[in-house]
Amino acid sequence: MSKKVVVLAETRDNSLRNVSFEAIGAAKTISEGGEVVVALFGSDVSAVADELFEYGADRVVIVEHPHLKYYTADGYNQAFLAVVEQENPDAIVFGHTALGKDLSPKVASRLDTGLISDVTSIEGSGDSAEFIRPIYSGKAFERVVSDSKPLFITVRPNNIAPLDQQVGKGGSTEKLTVDITNLRTIVENVVRKATDGVDLSEAKVVVAGGRGVKSSEGFEPLHELAKLLGGAVGASRGACDADYCDYSLQIGQTGKVVTPDLYIAAGISGAIQHLAGMSNSKIIVAINKDPEANIFKVADYGIVGDLFDVVPLLIEEIKALKINA
Amino acid sequence: MNIYVLVKRTFDTEEKIVISGGSIQEDGAEFIINPYDEYAIEEAIKVRDSAGGEVTVITIGNDESEKQLRTALAMGADKAVLINAEEDVEALDQFSVAKILSEYLKDKEVDLIFGGNVAIDGGSGQVGPRLAELLGINYVTTITSFELSGTDVKIVRDVEGDSEELTTSLPLLVTAQQGLNEPRYPSLPGIMKAKKKPLEELELDDLDLDEDDVEPKIKTVEVFLTAEKQAGRVLEGEIAEQAKELISLLHSEAKVI
């Protein structure tokens, strides 16, 4: 039976995040030919609605309000519940992002429904859909179903394919007026620390450094390599504990779990708690002086050598490749 | 100031996961306090030490969970509550856990609740926000800094690497992110004292809950491991040649750059 699915879109710097297109892809699978309605919130976001249609949205519901300029759980919850009330969806899909993680449990609790967080793939479709999600930070997986209505999932960035973009495909946009009141949290300021402008959890390429990087300056070549590849820089717990970098870069069972297309581990030994955070990456490259380092056991390609010799050479080779292309 | 801390007993991060008979083997595994909950305990103790009051650690678990609660008491928490649901229900989901906690807390005077932002086993991060919603109080997740003055709270929260500076007020639930503090180790006198600190054990009956009230809304039908990744190719030759070969492989074979 075809279903109506509501997706919450997310923007960053006034453009849509990739995970929103992936969420629409997931919604299409769940809807089985039903309708995919995308909710879009902000203080001035209408301009990006067209792109949502190109990735498969059937309809876009926009809620604009000065209080929605910054995300707050109270503000977004009020806006989203108004959309749910209007649409009465069979299913809801959010991205498993900072915003999605923060908001989805509140909405699920309010709707008295279950929530399947951090879904990495969907098997089957419609009523028979089953959801795969990592547990123990990716050391194992579970297959989960929900009996409660509406079905509610969050999808991990970079795992579920978006639909092919259909340039020029339009759809109907409507504005919903919601009174956003009583915000209990006030956002005073946002300090941008995320390096290179690419979010670690969504990055297609991650260049990560470990104790072998030796200092915060040692991260510079890794930043250069990441920038060249349009990726983000990450780190092992060892590097964070040694104060070479901020904890927000930590990848592992404590820290972030990433699944980029390409993961380059430089000077990382590969402790089990680090592997949990990255071993499901599609291609793994290990660079380490120690040929016995654990990281080589999960690497697709390995170079035994000093990262300070190898990384600059990689940077040169990539530049050469770009010129030839 | 009444401060509560939500604590979960989890596998040690160094443990490998073994599945037998369709479920995860727990025999012989080391268990710890969920690492993010340790930051929560530490922050709760610091707040109590400066603002006064009492820290109560709560867990939902089984007899084994007493060990983690005693550790929290040894760190400096004042009281512990163990809600043992094992005999009443087979499986709990995040809804069930939040529901049980809210039944326990609903008649209490709650000023502050600390929790970890996520448990490293289930990894959903739902319980904190769900509990706050059930109690009708505000919440802030993934915090890296917490400053209390009177009932006003200044918070810094980690948002995918960016820092959001927020203001809010009590009553409040917050979940801890790495970087919030450096959790203390229990001292020897702390460990001795912890043995005598009150630890209340409750079952669902004591909270006027029966099985149907906490029936999970989502169900795990299978747990499985993925095929272990095979070691790939370690390149050989001069370092410069290896670098050239690697970029060529990533470009034409793996097609990731």
UniProtKB/TrEMBL annotation, chain A:
Keywords: Electron transport, FAD, Flavoprotein, Transport. It comes from the Bacteria. Its cofactor is FAD. FAD binds at residues 211, 236-237, 250-254, 267-274, 288. Binds 1 FAD per dimer. GO terms for molecular function: electron transfer activity; flavin adenine dinucleotide binding. It holds the Pfam family ETF. GO terms for biological process: fatty acid beta-oxidation using acyl-CoA dehydrogenase. This is Electron transfer flavoprotein subunit alpha.
From TrEMBL, chain B:
Its cofactor is AMP. It comes from the Bacteria. InterPro entries: ET-Flavoprotein_bsu_CS, ETF_a/b_N, ETF_b, ETF_beta_N, Rossmann-like_a/b/a_fold. Residues 21-211 form the Electron transfer flavoprotein alpha/beta-subunit N-terminal domain. GO terms for cellular component: cytosol. Keywords: Electron transport, Transport. One of its GO terms (molecular function) is electron transfer activity. One of its GO terms (biological process) is carboxylic acid catabolic process. The keyword Electron transport applies. Belongs to the ETF beta-subunit/FixA family. The electron transfer flavoprotein serves as a specific electron acceptor for other dehydrogenases. It transfers the electrons to the main respiratory chain via ETF-ubiquinone oxidoreductase (ETF dehydrogenase). Heterodimer of an alpha and a beta subunit. This is Electron transfer flavoprotein subunit beta. It comes from Kurthia sibirica.
